[in-house]
Specification:
Helix content: 10-25%
Number of helices: 10
Strand order of the largest sheet: 2-1-3-7-11
Radius of gyration: 23 Å
CATH class of the largest domain: Alpha Beta
Largest sheet: 5 strands, parallel
Shape: elongated
Strand content: 5-15%
CATH superfamily of the largest domain: NADH:ubiquinone oxidoreductase-like, 20kDa subunit
Number of strands: 13
Length: 331
């Protein structure tokens, strides 16, 4: 199967993250799976007239297109023309090219939260009128209409994340190559469920602190960051603490709160990313699926039961009190 990859309005960070795939690297992996790039603007040698001929061939149907990947948001401005972002040398906007090429593709994949929902490039006043491919924030219908379906019958497949985990992209493309990704494998925002059926909270190394509601008060402290530092890993989809980044890390493992970058409109939470909004001292955002009354009752009990070791370590930047060694029966 072949892939055409377009980079639209964004930072290019998702391509940089994809290139961090290892064991095997992305090139060896795709080659072994029979996936090849028709063109990628950052890693392909072709440029200029050669690329224009390729795009024209795809548009005319002369060249078949299996997978269209788009990275970055789609600028609609000014006044719906899309001419704030032209595809260099073609005289046409990226919006125009995407709307023309998407119906030719067997599958269409949005790579990163900018391409899926608008992301950072749509924040604030959004002067370029940037959206995702099929979503404008939480609302369906954007550069491609809400009813758009690729030739496979699937909507745009949304691999959200800022940036994406490289394995989310490679696994999605491998599943498409094997015709093993169907409508039931996507969640309500069209994200592949193999990562979206998990929460960032799952396997977080701070979970003992979370269970006892032993909270960090400043960044770099070891405690749970939900109560004071804005972490919403209990609400954010993603297997970030299961499928580790670069084989060993994640945001929360590095001491920074999860900001839910796989979700639409994460870029404008209405408060600082490291702040937890509260009402009467109670965090406004609570774990997914948990009623507020239950959470408050459990939190109160947990705080009363917090071991001294956990309480002291929560507000330290390293382990001050190690776990005690279990006494032998003959002691």
């Amino acid at each position: 199967m072949n892939i055409l990859w377009l980079q639209s309005a964004g930072c290019g960070g998702c391509t940089m993250s994809l290139l961090c795939a290892e064991s095997p690297n992305v090139f060896d992996l795709f080659k072994s799976a029979g996936l090849e790039f028709l063109w990628h603007p950052s890693i392909s040698e072709a440029t200029g007239a050669e690329v224009r001929r390729l795009l024209t061939a795809i548009e005319s149907g002369e060249q078949e297109l299996d997978i269209l990947c788009v990275e970055g948001s789609i600028a609609h401005g000014p006044r719906g023309t899309g001419r704030y972002q032209m595809l260099g040398g073609t005289g046409r906007s990226m919006l125009d090219w995407v709307q023309s090429l998407a119906p030719k593709a067997k599958h269409v994949v949005a790579v990163g939260t900018c391409a899926t929902y608008g992301g950072v490039t749509s924040a604030g006043a959004n002067p370029s009128d940037a959206t995702g491919l099929q979503y404008d924030g939480r609302h369906s219908g954007a550069a491609l209409g809400a009813g758009f379906r690729s030739q496979s019958g699937l909507p745009v497949i949304n691999i959200s994340g800022c940036p994406i985990h490289p394995d989310w992209v490679t696994e999605t493309l491998l599943l498409l190559a094997e015709d093993a990704l169907g409508p039931n494998d996507l969640d309500s925002y069209a994200r592949p469920r193999f990562f979206a059926d998990n929460l960032v909270h799952h396997a977080c190394t701070k979970n003992e602190f979370y269970e006892y509601k032993a909270s960090a008060e400043e960044l770099s402290q070891m405690g749970c960051m939900m109560e004071h530092l804005g972490c919403i890993g209990t609400q954010a989809v993603g297997d970030c603490n299961i499928r580790l980044w670069n084989g060993e890390g994640s945001c929360t493992r590095a001491g920074y709160p999860c900001i839910n970058c796989t979700a639409p409109e994460f870029e404008e939470p209405g408060h600082g990313f490291t702040e937890t909004p509260k009402f009467a001292g109670i965090p406004v955002g609570l774990p997914t699926d948990m009623p507020k009354a239950w959470f408050m009752a459990l939190a109160s009990l947990s705080k009363r039961a917090t071991p001294e070791r956990v309480a002291k370590n929560a507000v330290a930047d390293r382990t001050l009190v190690p776990p005690s060694v279990k006494a032998r029966k003959d002691d």
